[in-house]
Each structure stands twice: as C-alpha cells, then as structure tokens.
Specification:
Keywords: ATP-binding, Kinase, Nucleotide-binding, Serine/threonine-protein kinase, Transferase. The protein is α+β, with helices and mostly antiparallel strands and 793 residues long. The chain is built from 24 helices and 16 strands. Strands 5-6-7-8-10-9 form a 6-stranded antiparallel β-sheet, covered by helices on one side. It has a two-stranded antiparallel sheet with strand order 1-2. Strand 12 and strand 13 form a beta hairpin. The protein is elongated.
Length: 793
Amino acid sequence: MSAEPCRQRQLSGGPCGGTILPTGYCGRCGRRQNARPLPELGDGPQGPRELLKLPPRTPRSSEERLAGGAHIADQAQRCRTPDCGATIPVLADSPDRQHCPRCGNPHAMRPDFVQGATLSNQYHIKGPVARGGQGWVYLAEDTHLGDLVAVKTLRDRYGADGAALADLERRTLVASRHPYIVRIRDFLPYEAPEPGEDGATHAEIEVRGGHIVMEDVGDHTLQSVIDEVRCGRETLDIEHVATYGIQILTALSHLHRQELLYGDMKPSNVVHFDDHVKVIDMGSVRKVGQTEPPPHVTPGFHAPELAGKLTLANDLHTVGVTLRCLAAPAVRDDVPGLGTSSLDAVIARATRTVGQGPRFKDAEEMADQLRGALREIRALRGKGGSPEPSGYFDPSPDWLGERLGDVPTTSALARRDEDRPRRGTPPVLRILDPGRPTPVEIARRLPVPKPFSDDPRTPEFGVSGGYAGTVRLQQNPGDEPSAEICLHNIRVALATAPAPPDVAAAEAELALAEAIPGPEEVRRWRLEWHRGMIALARFGASAARRPAGRAEDLAEACASFERVSADLPGEYAPKLALAYVHECTAHAEPQAPGAAAARALARDLFHAVHLRNPAHCGAALGLARLALDEHDRVQALAVLERVPRGTRGRTLAQRAATRIRAACLGSDPGDLPPPDAAESVLAAHAADRIRSSQERELVLAPLDELRLRIEVNEWQLAALHLTHGVTGAGEATFWRHLRRRWRPAHEPTPAESRAEEVRVQLERDYLELAATDTDLSEALVERAHAVRPTTWT
C-alpha cells in the first residue's frame, strides 16, 4: 500500500510534497494529516497592487493588548550590565528590586505604574503592554486630546546609565522626525521615589531623565507577524518583505544623514502600522563614533566581526538578518523564472561575512537594490509597472541582435545571383538568420557603468561634448591616478571596429585600474564588469585557439558577471550580460551536456529583463532567438509583439516580426510559411506602417520596404516548392500551357497560380531595385530574368 501524500502546503506557498507516516504525521512538514490547513492564498498573485504599498493593519483593541501585557513582568530578564548578561529569574514572591546572581547589580523587576495612575494630570495609565530593551511601555489615554498614547519609562531605574539612555532616546526622537519613525509627543520629568520606597535611598537613585510620551502605533511588530505566520494564522507575501526592508532602510538613511546609527534593528523593533512601518525603540541609537553609554545589541543580528561596535555596516547587517527572518516563512513559490533569487542576493550581500566581499555602501544603495528586486518579483508575477532608470549603468545606444530585424541590403540581394540556379531548377531555400550577436559585439555594446562620483576625473565625463568613446585618454601627470580613465580605455581598446579588439591593451588597462586604491564596495563590481567584457572579446577574437582555452574565456566572463550580479542584484544590466554569455555557451557547443541548462538559464534571464522593461528590445530579441532555435514561430512573434508602441525598439521589433512570419525556419513542413504568408504579411506590415506614420513612429524607408518585399516573396517561392512541388522559373507556366493545349478543361492548381503571381511580383521588384543602384543594376536585372515566369508570346 502506497503512502498517502500530504495535503498541506508549505509556508512558502507550494505543496508540501511529503508523505503521511504511520503515526499520522507528515514526514516532511511534521503536521498531522487532519491538522487545520494554513490560510488560503487566494486567487492570482499575492502582494500589494502598488509598489511600496503594504496592506493596512489596524491595532488590536486596548483590552486585548492589556491582557497580553499582564504577564510580561513575570518573564525572566537578562542583566544589562556590560559583559554580564546573566538571567535574572522572577519568582512568585520576588521583590520589585532584585540583584543579578552573577554581578550583583540591582535591577527593577516590576513596572513603575499600576493601572489608573495619572501622569502630569494628562496621561491616564491603562497598563503595561510591552517591555523594550531599555524601558517599560504603557498604554495610556491622553485626557486632553482623547486618544491613546504610548508612555515609555526606564526598565532599569537602578542602572548607572539608565537615565542617561532615556535622555539620549528622547533627544534622538526629537531630532529624527520621519514618517517611518515613531513620533514623540511629550516628555515628562522623572519623579524620584521618596527614601524608603522600594528599599531605595537617595544615594542609590539619581533623579535624571523622564518618561517619553509617543504616538501609539499598535502592537503589530514584525516579530508578531512572523509568529502569526509560523502558527498558521495568516500569510506573509514576499513582496511585503521587500517593502518592509525598503521602508526600514529609508528610516535608517534619515538617521545616517544626521550621523546617527540605529544599532539594534530586529523584527521586534519595527511595527506594521496602517499601511507602512514605524521604527520604534530608539534607545540604542548613538552618534557615529560614540561609545558611551555602551549600546545594547542583539546576538545574531549584530555583525559578528564588529564585536559590539556600532557602524553603518552593522546597521545594514541587522537589516539583512531582519529580512532573512521575514523571508523564511513568506509566500514565494508562485514567482516563476528566476523567482526571488534577486531578493535573496540582496539579503546575502547585506549579511556577508569577512572575506565574502563588501557589503552595501550605504542604506540608499541597499534600498535601490531591494527596490529593483521587488520590481523584478512583481514583473515575474505579471503585475508590470513602469521601468525605473538605472543609477549604475548607462544604456547602450544600440540593441544587440538587431540583425534579426534588418532587411537585406541591395548588395546582398544582388550577390544571390552568384548562387542562382539555372532556370527551371528549384529555388534556393534560405533559412532565417536569427541575428545572434557575436561575443565581440556583446563586449562592445553592453551597457556602460556610470563613473564613480569620487573619481578625480569623473566630472570630465559628464560635461557637454565630453570624451568620445573611441579616443584613448591619458592620466594627468602629477595628479591622483583615475580608475575611470583606465576603464574608459578598456572600452576603447575593445571598440576598435572593424578591426579586431585589442585584448592585450584592455588587459593592461585593467591591471592599472586594479592597482589604484578605492572603496571596495564601489570599485569591485566595476572592475569585474570590464573583466567580463575582456573575456568575451578574447573568446570572440580567438577562434583559432583550442576549444578548451576558449571555454575558459566564457567561464571567466560568466564568473565576472555573476559577481557583478551578486553585488548589484536589483539591476538588470548584469542579468542581461549573463543571458548573452549563457546563450553563447549553448550556441558554442550545442551538443554539450550543459547546453540545455545554459539555454534555459539564458531564457529565464532574458525573460526577467523583458518583463521588467518591455521596451528593452534587446531582451525581446534574445527571447525570440531562443524560440527560433526551437523553431517556435508563435512564441517568437508573441515576445516581439509585447514591445510597446512609441518606444525606440518598436520599429525594430515590427521588422523582425514581419521577417519571422514569412521566413523559412527549416526544411520541415512545420517550419515553412503558409501559402498566403507573403501576401498577408506584407498587408499587415503596410497597415502597421500607416498606423506608425499616424502615430509619428519610425517607419521603413521606401527602399527598405522594397527589399523587404523581395525577401518575403523569395521565402514564399521556396515554401511553395517544398510543400507543393512547384519548381523552377517558368516550369509551372510551361506545363500549364501544354495541359491547356491538350486538356483544355484542366485548371492550374492554386499553388501553381500563386507561384506565378509571386514570380511576377519578384521580377517587378528586382527591376525596380536595379533602377536605384547603377553599380549593381546588371546583377539585379539578371536576378529579375532568372525569377520571372516563362511566357510563350
């Protein structure tokens, strides 16, 4: 008897896939067979409809929150003395003040206020609702305004630096007003207990600091969201996780601009309030370089190599760990293609350890990459959205693979006379060239990294009429060397068309750039990008090398662009470069074991770029090429149709689609165009031309229209021969003449009639083309005579 499959789903959204053990529990997810299922995911993609929007959350009622906070005081505490951290248990008869069993320092174990107390004749205490890292949080009513507020008091009023920390938190809240940071409303001076109260004396208590009155933002901390999801009471979408991260980073960026470090970011220090987040618990905020009072950090979130020190890198590390905690139970399995790999890469870079490479430069850079990853996830889910310009790459002025949309030149059509068969023989079958870019073309026409803003020569690149991309530049003698000049010279060395790329000169410039010091987080990906370009150019320029050596070049290019993608996971330029490299790998050795995997990965990468920016015609052409490799005409056309109207790639996509509709993709019957393809394709293209002209889009010149018509009709003639046996020029007309003479009742077949119409049109078009070029007119007239039908009058 086969084991019963588990009917539960995973937290990430996909089916469990496990089997039920004889015990009644699943061997994979551990749930009972009859356990309550996880919440339904609903129909369609999950997540917010708009970028950076969160679903509104309403705080729980005050009664529910007070009931949950009633037992907080009964939970054990950790000693806050530096280098101690011992657990202080709370017994049933424990006094309000208790000493640490390890270091002996006193700690307040109970809240200061009881229900019904009133502060400053304005704030009516309802009860404790939370215990933060440095204070008790009470829910109170503002009797003057009639709304709820949160009052924070010192958790450890006996601590030597407790009041100083409270005062520091107050000043931080006042100075850091931001929509994503909890707002301070009032500050009440701390009232010292009389001598003898709580067994205290004036010598033991310093009356400083006070109570902080803040806006009430509810109790939906991100930690509570994680707990609810893990308990199966609600779901968390991966888009929400990215949005949480972007909003948290926006708040931290506001602090960093004031030279403040948050220090202790974690899920319990962020609240989902209404449709956005609120960062709470500012007690660990410190000025950059400040060491006293010692900050409170949470093990597992703090950067391990910093040993408790607060830095900007540590803040980003804590955000990365927070996002990792949130992403673990989030719904993500419905994201196709690349899935959530870009979001995972953002988290991985933020939490890198020593030796794994630099973390993000600042909160803005991490937020940029997180926003790009979110856009990619939404695009893969079919939500679309307008593309966002890159802050790291300048787009290439040309589309790679544009030959797929190029009509043949006059000289190319004239040269076809060289392989023209004798009249009466079958027409030559020409398979559509997909226009796959060469490795050298890829290296020359990839997007260009924007210059590093702190490089000494960067301002000269941005001025009007600045450096030409084909002119090699020199370092200024006596000035600080410029890495951007070296990178510019690499591109110049590779762009020596039509001559082969000067790979040796490019490698020398790369070595010079590597020797110039600079911040690793901004220089590494730029160097790797150009290293990948050089490897591609070397692969394309060394056709005579042994295959193993050429494969090493492709592997080096792939590794370099993968490192760039890991450093900038939210950018699509590295994904585009990787797509071209994997396409080259699959095409170089199509029968190799890894060719199919390389082709599939290239398709996923092109697809991610195209969905995120449908106007990127280069990605659309890449997908069309991969579809044509499998002789899938329908899929290739569907991709090109998605290039939006009004964009600069639309005309190229239209030309490519016209050629694909009429082209012969192979000699098999399924690869040939239908009998009426030429007529219908040219009619549709004419309609597109009229519409494009009305919409003021770019259209083909009349001469290009003529050459396109010739190419389409030649494909049609070859297809008629292969499918219906219609052969060389005039043969159908000759036999039809004889049949009419001896069997007057016989009518020509539709294919024969169609072939004669195509030949007549081709003759006219070749003669018209001959009149436009005196140098090639003789060859074009010969071509017209070769294709015309034989006549008897």
